[in-house]
Amino acid sequence: MALYKKYTGKKAVKYTRNTTIIILLLLFAIATIFPIYFMIISSFGDPVEAGALDYSLWPKKISFESYKFFFDYSEHSYRWLLNSLIVAGSVTASNVIFATLAGYAFSKIRFKGRTVLFSVLLCAMMIPYQVTQVPLYILIVNIFQIENTYRALIMPGLVTVYNIFLTKQFMSSIPTEIIECAKVEGCNQFQIFIKVIVPLSKTVMAVTAILTFMDSWNTFFWPFLVTNTMDMQTIQVGLKNFRFANTTYFAPMMAGATISALPMFILFFSLQKYFLEGVTVGAVKG
Amino acid sequence: MSQLAKVPSTTKVARKRKWRGDNGWGYAFIAVALVVFAMFTAYPVVSAFIISFQEYRPLGSVFIGFENYVNTFSDALFWKSIRNTIVYTVLTVPFTLFLSFAVAILILPLKKRTQTAFKAIYYLPAVASGVALSVVWLWIFDPMPSGILNKLLHVFGLSNMNWLGASSTAMFSLVLMAWLSSHGTSIIIYLAALLGIDESYYEAADLDGANFLKKLWYIVIPFLKPTTLFLLVTGVIGSFQVFQNAYLMTGGGPDNATTMVGLLIFNNAFKYFEFGKAAAQSLILAAIIASISFIQFKFFGKNIEY
After folding, report:
1. Of B275, B263, B250, B272, nearest to B78 (Cα)?
2. Which residue ranges traverse the bilayer (chain A) (predicted)?
3. Same domain, yes or no, for A46 and A153?
């Protein structure tokens, strides 16, 4: 950390410098989390229509009426949370399994066409999702005819190229000698994977799981396209519909937003280490 | 990292035999990934090319050659959406990068625990769903005098603004929202890269009597060039695909002032069901993104070793 002067012996100077830095960072931090703070405290207000509403920056009272109002909006509102959980859970499980397998194969197993196939996958990451959205919609709705099902919500996300890339990056740092040793001991590739690779890759598997779950929980676009009844919608789509149907109900809208975001906040604060690590894993080494 | 893998541990013949034995395992391990990729990425891309030359009809599409492309290029709204996208990108990406860089530099001298706390706070908006954030920001931008942002203006003696409702401020409102909610990832990546710079460089600079700014200019900035390039390219790619905020906050309005390419394509596809036109426009977008990325690598990628 020698970018900064050490100020040995001059405690007061160092103290002033660090305090200034912290004040600057705090100001920016307040601006960053203000919307989230505003969302949570406003959700405790009464579910009245916002006429000449006076927003308060401090909670005047704690009432859960707005939450009740949000859940009462549709008989399926609890189902939205369940749907999100089912979809995000399945997508996460399948990504962890299949991305880890593929990531291991691409980094450590030598098979014909490995480099070519991996380059194709990497190139595909550059393609904007707008290109695939129309054909994907036609495929799911017109060809497979599985609109408004869990399959439609889950299948396109079963394993993403990004996750394969992430695990491959991580696994190339596992020494090949370990695998060679296991092979000499008579293990086949599947046994090596289960007994050697998986125990060594717990971190990257956790990172994959968390980032995938968050992505899937927060995704709006695809569920919005392929669901058309309230009982199949996810919480994000439900929240959007609630917003458009109750444009003047301020506090219930905030309650809905809090409900959709809270599970991820809880997950984030309990597994912070993996979240923050996950951000860098894919980026280091460009 | 990869050095270990390169050490030949067996003779050529033996290795060749092992290759053959592992072929099957390799394919088995990637099988599911490949099927998913082929069905939900490769096939749609090929299909998009075909659709872009057709007028889509549920019962048998009609081949119409380049008409979708020709119509797109003569469509004023398409050019407006391109301009909007460029304005949005230019206003958000460089500023976010600069802000993240500055914050990462400021966080650096703090204690490990304080660093983590700040990282967590800055990353928090990235954890909340885009729909939830759009709901909140919609109220922050409340055009009434009682709206949060308007109250803030009053403190500075400025008058009311119709943030999302006026074509002069709608784009800026979306940009402001991006400034305050999309820097978490880049701050963390910058900080990781900063921590990766070897101490000895600073020590050498200290011996030469270099001050803070000199060290920043001659050591930090060159060392972080690959990181900056990575964040710049991914930032621009992401920004060109922006759809959700425009769709949820303004719907592209007022008077198409915030219609970005992503939203235009969505509207053509799922509002007007002109799949052919949407496919053609999405391929044009892909070409634009690919060329911009290429230019960025050419222009800024010099002297970078990977």
Report:
1. B263
2. 21-40, 80-104, 116-140, 152-171, 192-214, 249-269
3. no
Find, in chain B, the residue whose alpha carbon is nearest to that of A286: B230
Which domains occur in chain B, in start order?
3-52 (no CATH), 75-300 (1.10.3720.10)
CATH of the domain at A148: 1.10.3720.10
From the list A169, A141, A208, the residue with the least C-alpha distance to B44 is A141
My answer on whether A210 and A251 are in the same domain is yes
Looking at residue B9, its pLDDT comes to 47
Looking at the structure, tell me whether residues A98 and A135 fall in a common domain.
Answer: yes
CA–CA separation, A257 and A147 (whole Å): 26
Axis crossing angle, helix B43-52 with helix B275-300, rounded to the nearest 10: 120
With beta carbons less than 8 A apart as the criterion, state whether A189 and A109 touch.
yes
Question: CB distance from A36 to chain B under 8 Å?
Answer: yes
% of chain B at pLDDT higher than 90: 56
pLDDT, tens digit, for every residue of A211-261?
A: 999 999 999 999 999 999 999 999 999 999 998 888 888 888 999 999 999
- Do A37 and A74 fall within a single domain? no
| Residue A286 lies inside a defined structural domain of this protein | no
- Tell whether A62 and A75 lie within a shared domain: no
Residue in the block written with tokens 């802000």: B99
Q: What is the pLDDT of residue A52?
A: 53
Nearest to A176 by CA among B11, B8, B12: B8
For residues A170 and A228, membership in a common domain is answered with yes
Q: Which residues pair with B55 in a beta bridge?
A: B62
Residues A98 and A51 in one domain: no
Q: For residue A251, give how far its alpha carbon lies from the nearest alpha carbon of chain B (Å).
A: 10
* Radius of gyration for the alpha carbons in chain B, expressed in angstroms and rounded: 25
ipTM over cut 0.90: no
Same domain, A92 and A59: no
Counting the structural domains of chain A, the total is 2
Q: Chain B residue with minimal CA distance to A19? A: B110
Name the pTM for this structure: 0.89
Contacts of A126 in chain B (CB under 8 A): 237, 289-290, 293
Is the Cβ pair A5, B306 closer than 8 Å?
no
A2 in any annotated domain = no
The secondary structure of residue A249, as a DSSP letter, is B
Touching check for B109 and chain A: CB below 8 Å?
Answer: yes
**Domain of A121, in residue numbers:** 69-281
